[in-house]
């Protein structure tokens, strides 16, 4: 059962790695991801309105 009981060292380094990756994503990737999602949302909305226009 030693495999299922986490040791402090493993927990500590896993937490450090998680926080580091989270920080890097927030610093460098969060804004571009949000911008891409907003652009895609705008493109889809424009496509839907164009399809509705052409249907009329």
List keywords for this structure.
mainly alpha, 56 residues
Give structural notes.
The mean pLDDT is 92. The chain has one helix at residues 8-55. It has one helix and no strands. It is elongated and about 70 Å long. With 56 residues, it is an all-alpha fold.
What's this entry about, in short?
By secondary structure, the protein is an all-alpha fold.
The strand count comes to 0
Question: What is the terminal-to-terminal distance?
Answer: 68 Å
Share of helical residues: over 70%
**How much of the sequence is in beta strands?**
under 5%
Globally, the shape reads: elongated
Indicate the radius of gyration in whole angstroms.
22 Å
- Unreliable runs: none
Biggest sheet record? none
Give the helix/strand layout.
Layout (H helix, E strand, L loop, with lengths): L7 H48 L1
């Amino acid at each position: 059962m030693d495999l299922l009981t986490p040791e402090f060292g493993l927990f500590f380094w896993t937490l450090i790695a998680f926080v580091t990756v989270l920080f890097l994503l927030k610093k460098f990737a969060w804004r571009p991801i949000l911008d891409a999602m907003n652009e895609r949302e705008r493109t889809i909305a424009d496509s839907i309105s164009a399809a509705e226009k052409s249907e009329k």
